[in-house]
């Protein structure tokens, strides 16, 4: 090894993580889910409940076919539910063939 390259390595500062990488924030999955649910153009497919503490998938087929592929690399409703369950504690309540998600610590923010 060349002695001059060894001294250059010792004089270089250690690598520093890029700014913002250590800041806490929601995962991309949760951010995308929040955007999907909050889109007023798709309220007939998925929307917040009136209180903003849960969201309802009104039409799981349309949700899978049209909305999931816009945000994710798949259109599988079961995969979406499974992934959601890994990030937050959820309770799924089937009600008249609707899927209501009660997602704790994941609510709409009212202005």
From TrEMBL:
Biased composition (Low complexity): 1-11
Stretches assigned to the HSF-type DNA-binding domain: 25-111
Keyword annotations of the record: DNA-binding, Membrane, Nucleus, Phosphoprotein, Stress response, Transcription, Transcription regulation, Transmembrane, Transmembrane helix
Main location: nucleus
Stretch forming the signal peptide: none
Chain segments annotated as transmembrane: 87-110
GO terms, molecular function: DNA-binding transcription factor activity; sequence-specific DNA binding
Protein location: Nucleus
Domain of life according to the entry: Eukaryota
Pfam families to which the protein is assigned, alphabetical: HSF_DNA-bind
Region (Disordered): 1-25
Gene Ontology cellular component annotations, sorted alphabetically: nucleus
Family in the record: Belongs to the HSF family.
Binding partners and assembly: Homotrimer.
Protein name (Swiss-Prot/TrEMBL): Truncated heat shock factor A7b
Organism listed in the record: Arabidopsis thaliana (Mouse-ear cress)
